[in-house]
Design goal:
Elements: H1 6-21, H2 26-37, H3 44-55, H4 64-77
Length: 79
């Protein structure tokens, strides 16, 4: 089995998203999640990167769509 480096792509994608306007939108977070899921599993490196990305989201930026996406991610990585 080859080692996955999707977590690096996830990190770069999130940097692109944040650099546009300093914020991460729910659909952008969904795109990052899709990178993690494309091989059928979310590994520990991808979980670590997702948590770091989520940690950069300011509470004032969490709207309903973001709250829903955060809940979806939580359900996938904490179960």
């Amino acid at each position: 089995m080859t080692k996955s480096y999707d977590y690096i792509e996830m990190a770069f994608r999130s940097i692109e998203c944040f650099s546009k306007d300093g914020k991460l939108k729910a659909h952008e977070l969904g795109q990052v999640l899709a990178i993690a899921e494309r091989d059928g599993t979310i590994d520990q490196n991808e979980i670590r990167v997702l948590r770091k990305i989520i940690g950069k989201i300011k509470p004032s930026e969490v709207d309903r769509a973001m709250r829903d996406k955060l809940q979806e991610i939580s359900n996938k990585i904490n179960n």
